């Protein structure tokens, strides 16, 4: 018998609804688990146990009274700490927002609450979501539950680690250049970056608006599909939100990939991608072939420029978005007796931001400055259009495009953090989906020793259903999503 905190979200919801367990019992079990393993993992920046227990009791009462229940009734969700939660500290893992308590909920949080989900805490991340390892957090790094000496991936590393360590049933992440998929791959969970515009960004603290989406992370494909169904859909408060028909993604999960046309992206298996990674990803492709899909290799030559374009665009947007943190209106503020506001502003930012954030603000400011704008920012936008066209064409011929999520397995904590360029290179396979806005998912597809490897699947705009269907088929025909680390 699995213990309550080990259950998938759908199992919890089902058992609570049938009154086999109470939501309170489940939350108690989860809190005990978190207390037991958090010292090793550091997945959470903030936990809200008292409030979670109060909500659980309320849901149990609702059940006893036979009231209508939401789709996530009684189950726990961990929320990345760059998504605003009313009354719960939201830090972006930065000293700058160390004491920030939002007076409002992000749209995704409103939707979770409407479906009776219970927020259990806010998860660790790279500062302002800038990174791929969760090492730049002001609150210390998160460790990979599969091997505590390795990084969990990032920037949503806390969400992924909390899931695989059974410290939550569901989690939200955000993905600007891979931040959902990278930690999903490194912790062996499922993580989906939705099509740009499918999920509201209202209440997501911005890093690079034109690239990012909030998305679901989960221990099973069905849980991921359920969470996506709850958080997706039009929101008039986000001007980039797209008005598409809401879907029940759970109903799309059939174990049938017959006739599916797969394009294997040649450039995703190039230099810099480790052989061990290639081996597991190819096994997954051959498994899909055995299950009735066909594949063909496809070359997307513009990908050579994707990483450069991504970093110019992301840093440019970041430099503009982060200008608001001056410590005068809110955020970190030093004690000062100096009357010169510009000195105060500079000091607040010097102390409030970490090194990586400052590096990006400076590079982004440079790329946008007069004389360099055309050379860098404008050129990057043009490259972005070329890449999007190439993907659009490829997806006329194929239903999905596949490759690895990450070019190498999880590496040691501290190994790459001193060398920003090497770290940026790790994003080479994830940024194309953000530049194009297309949906992409990372699905566990093997283990190299004790370390997980992820398969990345990129789909047509708003065709999350196909990504989830393929993920479901892989999950049903392998045992990777059922494996758990020993803690
Ligand atoms: N690692 C990438 C970056 O640092 C992506 C981060 C993200 O998706 N938020 O920009």
Chain-wise SSE layout:
Blueprint: H1 9-17, H2 23-41, E1 44-47, H3 49-64, E2 76-80, H4 107-114, E3 118-123, H5 157-164, E4 170-175, H6 181-187, E5 190-193, E6 213-218, H7 221-231, E7 261-265, H8 275-290, E8 294-298, H9 306-321, H10 341-352, H11 355-368, H12 374-397, E9 400-404, H13 420-425, H14 431-436, E10 440-448, E11 451-459, H15 464-477
Parallel strand pairs: 2-3, 2-4, 7-8, 7-9
Antiparallel strand pairs: 1-3, 4-6, 5-6, 5-10, 9-11, 10-11
Bound molecules: glutamine (GLN).
Annotation, overall tally of beta strands: 11
CATH superfamily of one domain: Amidase signature (AS) domain
Radius of gyration: 21 Å
Strand order of the largest sheet: 1-3-2-4-6-5-10-11-9-7-8
Question: Could you report the average pLDDT, rounded to the nearest whole number?
Answer: 96
CATH class bucket of one domain: Alpha Beta
Q: Note the main sheet.
A: 11 strands, mixed
What percent of residues are in strands?
5-15%
Helical stretch tally:
15
User: Which series of helices and strands comes N to C?
Assistant: HHEHEHEHEHEEHEHEHHHHEHHEEH
Hetero groups in this structure are: glutamine
Structural summary, described in words:
With 487 residues, the chain is of the alpha/beta class. It has a domain at 4-259 and 440-482: Amidase signature (AS) domain (Amidase signature (AS) enzymes). It has 15 helices and eleven strands. It has helices at residues 9-17, 23-41, 49-64, 107-114, 157-164, 181-187, 221-231, 275-290, 306-321, 341-352, 355-368, 374-397, 420-425, 431-436, 464-477, and strands at residues 44-47, 76-80, 118-123, 170-175, 190-193, 213-218, 261-265, 294-298, 400-404, 440-448, 451-459. The chain has an eleven-stranded mixed β-sheet with strand order 1-3-2-4-6-5-10-11-9-7-8, sandwiched between helices. Helix 2 packs antiparallel against helix 3 (49-64). The protein starts with 8 loop residues before the first helix and ends in a 10-residue tail after the last helix. The relative contact order is 0.14. The mean pLDDT is 96. The structure holds glutamine. Glutamine (GLN) is lined by residues 129-132, 155, 175-179, 207, 314, 427.
């Amino acid at each position: 018998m699995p213990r309550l905190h080990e259950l998938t979200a759908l199992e919890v919801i089902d058992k609570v609804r049938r009154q086999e367990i109470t939501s309170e019992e489940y939350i108690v079990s989860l809190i005990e688990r978190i207390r037991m393993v958090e010292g090793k993992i550091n997945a959470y920046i903030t936990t809200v146990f008292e409030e979670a227990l109060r909500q659980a009791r309320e849901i149990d009462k609702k059940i006893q009274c036979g009231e209508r229940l939401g789709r996530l009734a009684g189950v726990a969700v961990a929320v990345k700490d760059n998504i605003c939660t009313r009354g719960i500290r939201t830090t972006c893992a930065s000293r700058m927002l160390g004491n920030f308590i939002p007076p409002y909920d992000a749209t995704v949080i409103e939707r979770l609450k409407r479906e009776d989900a219970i927020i259990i805490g806010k998860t660790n991340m790279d500062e302002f979501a800038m990174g791929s390892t969760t090492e730049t957090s002001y609150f210390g790094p998160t460790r990979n539950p599969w091997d505590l000496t390795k990084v969990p991936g990032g920037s949503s590393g806390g969400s992924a680690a909390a899931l695989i360590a059974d410290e939550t049933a569901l989690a939200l992440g955000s993905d600007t250049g891979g931040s959902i998929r990278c930690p999903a791959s490194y912790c062996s969970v499922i993580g989906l970056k939705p099509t740009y515009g499918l999920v509201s960004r209202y209440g997501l603290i911005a890093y690079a608006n034109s690239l990012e989406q909030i998305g679901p992370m989960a221990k099973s494909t069905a849980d991921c599909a359920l969470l996506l169904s709850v958080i997706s859909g039009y929101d008039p408060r986000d001007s980039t939100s797209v008005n598409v028909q809401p879907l029940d993604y759970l109903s799309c999960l059939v174990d049938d990939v017959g006739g599916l046309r797969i394009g294997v992206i040649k450039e995703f298996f190039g230099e810099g991608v480790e052989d061990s990674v290639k081996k597991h990803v190819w096994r997954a492709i051959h498994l899909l072939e055995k299950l009735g899909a066909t594949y063909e290799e496809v070359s997307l030559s513009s990908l050579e420029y994707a990483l450069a374009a991504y970093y110019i665009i992301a840093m440019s947007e970041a430099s503009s978005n982060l200008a608001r943190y001056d410590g005068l209106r809110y955020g970190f503020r030093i004690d000062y007796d100096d009357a010169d506001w510009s000195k105060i502003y500079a000091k607040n930012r010097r102390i409030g931001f970490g090194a990586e954030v400052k590096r990006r603000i400076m590079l982004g400011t440079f790329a946008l400055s007069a004389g360099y704008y055309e050379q860098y920012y404008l050129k990057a936008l043009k490259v972005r259009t070329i890449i999007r066209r190439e993907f659009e064409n490829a997806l006329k011929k194929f239903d999905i495009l596949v490759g690895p999520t990450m070019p190498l397995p999880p590496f040691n904590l501290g190994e790459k953090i001193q060398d920003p360029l090497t770290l940026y290179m790790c994003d080479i396979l994830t940024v194309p989906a953000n530049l194009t806005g297309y949906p992409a998912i990372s699905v566990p597809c093997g283990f190299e020793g004790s370390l997980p490897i992820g398969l990345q699947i990129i789909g047509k705009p708003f065709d999350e259903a196909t990504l989830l269907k393929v993920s479901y088929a892989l999950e049903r025909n392998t045992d990777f999503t059922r494996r758990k680390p020993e803690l």
